[in-house]
Write a structure and sequence with these properties.
Helix 6 runs antiparallel to helix 7, helix 7 packs antiparallel against helix 8 and helix 7 packs across helix 10. The chain is elongated. Helices cover about 55% and strands about 5% of the residues. The protein has a two-stranded antiparallel sheet. The protein is mainly alpha-helical. The longest helix is centred in the first third of the chain and has 24 residues.
């Protein structure tokens, strides 16, 4: 109980331990002790800050440089993701298509759908438009046509119905009432041709609705090396009829 906080002088900011002195005892000035105890460290703290301007103005100096580095990193990551999604070398293991082939996709929807790489690119586009279920249904129907085992045919047909035809499915495709009724009748005894009418209707829907936007999208135009100043691809082929081949290439 022999030590107390003392200030060396009014101009100093030093804090130390000292024995009792005038004004520091019970009868001394409590206000002076309070001032010295809190004011001196504050002055010392400001003095240290003034000698480190970068830390004092961190919001205008260090932070700005850090934010610039962080923003550049984030922008670079976004650009990298965008470039990766447009990289023509990524075709899920399939050979990269030639520029001539890619440009043909803008002239013929049937040719696009017969190309494995073309379907991959078109599927990526439909995913951005939240209509990927259309091409997934079409592809599932193509797989069903390859089956020869009656049990496998029935199983796959029911999976397709539950995933894309049922009104309870979140991936239900848009079919008119007539085609839907035909599918329901065909499901009594499923075959490889159970969904033919539905498949053609979805094929036509993709051709009329999604394909023109795909051809004019930045995704396709970059791969086809078509700049904004270039002429647009030729007018897409007409809507397919029931005889239009839709078989996908392996």
């Amino acid at each position: 109980m022999t030590s107390a906080v003392a200030s060396s002088s009014d101009n100093g900011g030093a804090v130390g331990l000292a024995g009792p002195g005038p004004g520091h005892g019970p009868g001394g000035s409590g206000g002076s002790l309070h001032h010295q105890h809190h004011g001196a460290p504050a002055r010392g703290y400001l003095h240290r800050l003034q000698n480190k301007n970068c830390c004092l103005c961190w919001c205008c100096c260090c932070s700005c440089s850090c934010l610039a580095v962080r923003n550049n990193h984030e922008n670079g990551s976004r650009n990298k993701d965008s470039n990766d999604s447009l990289d023509p070398g990524k075709w899920d293991g399939d050979p990269a298509p030639s520029l001539e082939e890619i440009r043909c996709w803008g002239k013929s929807f049937d040719r696009l759908m017969r190309s494995s790489a073309g379907r991959k690119l078109f599927r990526d586009f439909l995913k951005c438009e939240y209509s990927e279920e259309n091409i997934l249904f079409w592809l599932a129907c193509e797989e069903l046509k390859k089956e020869s085992n009656p049990e496998a045919i029935e199983e796959k047909a029911r999976f397709i119905y539950e995933d894309y035809i049922s009104i309870l499915s979140p991936k239900e495709v848009s079919l008119d009432s007539k085609v839907r009724e035909t599918v329901n009748q065909n499901m009594v005894v499923p075959t490889t041709r159970t969904f033919d009418e539905a498949q053609l209707q979805i094929y036509t829907l993709m051709h009329r609705d999604s394909y023109p936007r795909f051809v004019n999208s930045p995704l396709y135009r970059k791969l086809a090396q078509l700049s904004n100043g270039d002429d647009k691809p030729d007018r897409p082929d007409p809507t397919p009829s029931a005889s239009t081949p839709t078989k996908a290439s392996s």
